[in-house]
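#dry-run=false #mode=assembly
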Amino acid sequence: MKKLINEPDQVLSDALRGVAAAHPSLAVNSVERYVARAGGPTPGKVALVSGGGSGHEPLHGGFVGYGMLDAACPGEVFTSPVPDQILAATKAVSSGGGVLHIVKNYTGDVLNFQMAADLAGDAGIEVQTVVVNDDVAVEDSTWTAGRRGTGATVFVEKIAGALAERGADLSSVAAVAREVNERSRSFGVALTACTVPANGKPGFELADDEIELGVGIHGEPGRTRSKLVSAKQIAEISLDAITSDLPLSGDVAVMVNGMGGTPLIELYIVYAAVADYLKARGVTIARSLVGNYITSLEMAGCMVTVGKLTPQLTNLWDAPVETPALRWGR
Amino acid sequence: MKKLINEPDQVLSDALRGVAAAHPSLAVNSVERYVARAGGPTPGKVALVSGGGSGHEPLHGGFVGYGMLDAACPGEVFTSPVPDQILAATKAVSSGGGVLHIVKNYTGDVLNFQMAADLAGDAGIEVQTVVVNDDVAVEDSTWTAGRRGTGATVFVEKIAGALAERGADLSSVAAVAREVNERSRSFGVALTACTVPANGKPGFELADDEIELGVGIHGEPGRTRSKLVSAKQIAEISLDAITSDLPLSGDVAVMVNGMGGTPLIELYIVYAAVADYLKARGVTIARSLVGNYITSLEMAGCMVTVGKLTPQLTNLWDAPVETPALRWGR
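#status=ok
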């Protein structure tokens, strides 16, 4: 295992020290293990809290800031955050408007966020939860009942965060978060596996000429293995899977996301193929992201996420955002 | 070779199609092969043109936009852009204020930019050139006489771009670009090699427990090979090399840059060690970047760049910028 780390069991704590040092806009609580906005809670605003295993950076800590999350709870690498951690973050950002938990659909995450929400409720904090489950590749998986939550998480956090910033109430923010999830689908492809530092060896094996179609963001098995194919074919396979599940028309947002070990030049090559595919079917890419937004450590590969827009969703997408990983328009 | 590409000889053209599709703020000229701002030249403003081999994305095309570059010329992967290409970009963005060429110190780049500058001069366009040569690892290298140009390029483009946006004249913009270069140093480390698509195999070999200290951004040999060491030790080796060349004090800007295949969580671990090192020596990190800004395809590893700030340079760093890869404050 070749990694830029100190000790495998210090990966999260060392990384959080780095995040704290690099971003004065963030308040990192290294004891309770959450990342919040440095300015403290915004009075009366619905607070958005997300989290999950580490190793998917910039998700979620990189999306904490104006227009997106109020706090993020990083678990150990590929491991759910614990209920106490989520509860501490929830309490820290709660300011009377209620708290929305944004949870990717992995069994551990769902259970731990649920327990934290119950405890927060006992403490008088109103919590609603949206579970993101956009990955069309498989039903049920290594760590999931139902579909996995992947790229749509970024869309949900951006759009719900924008609505919360405008002063909407908890039910409205939760409703738009669910709407974005329901209108979004993802499909991922791995060219290589990745290695969890504590394990020291790759989570799975792929031959030199093999790729995994429909891979999960922890390397969970996908639909099938295939020989390496072209970027154009990978775009087609991904979009065939997405559009056969959710017919597309009108305006969409597209993310071509790198899994961590794939260079940007390759993501643009995939994006060109995605744009061709959608254009040929009369679908308009109204907004897009190309880059590393939800990763799987050093895995090589990409994920395509498509979200159907409405005028309101586009307007919220365009709203100002100021986080380490996503910022525009303020 | 496992890559998200179509054909090796279409990598650049396919990627440029993707860039054009993803970024309405950019005008991609796929015939002449340059990327410029979509709005056309800014009348009277000094225009900044950079470029170099592809494979270092987001450098340089990702830095085209308000507050940074006016145009970028991408060569084939790890290959200099040609003079005609640079000349076309120079003419396209020239609007009477003169043009600054920002060139990383590689022999091919320097020659081709020089030829383009001469041709532009013949056409009545005033061009000045700054050659970036911040890499302290080695004197002379595979493709370079003198020191290689690496991470400081990002600082030069940001700060000179800001001054140009404020209406400074060509000599002033060139002077600040040279000042930033002279005050900046970089040192890079590779954990793995990378593969140029047209070659189909890695540019060099590293054993499973080996790293290359002082590597160049095309995989050029560095100072020495070593067994894998900790992130803390890598930060120390990098900063020892930098500070023995340029003593540091006061405020600095730091970039911990990923070489393309290293996950963000590892870069934050390195950044924490860099922050510790500098704090212990009384040096203040006033500004920082952590992420992939100048890459080497899918190489795993990192580069540390440090630039000594002045109040003016900090002010220009903070000026609004709006490019695909760097944006804040507008």
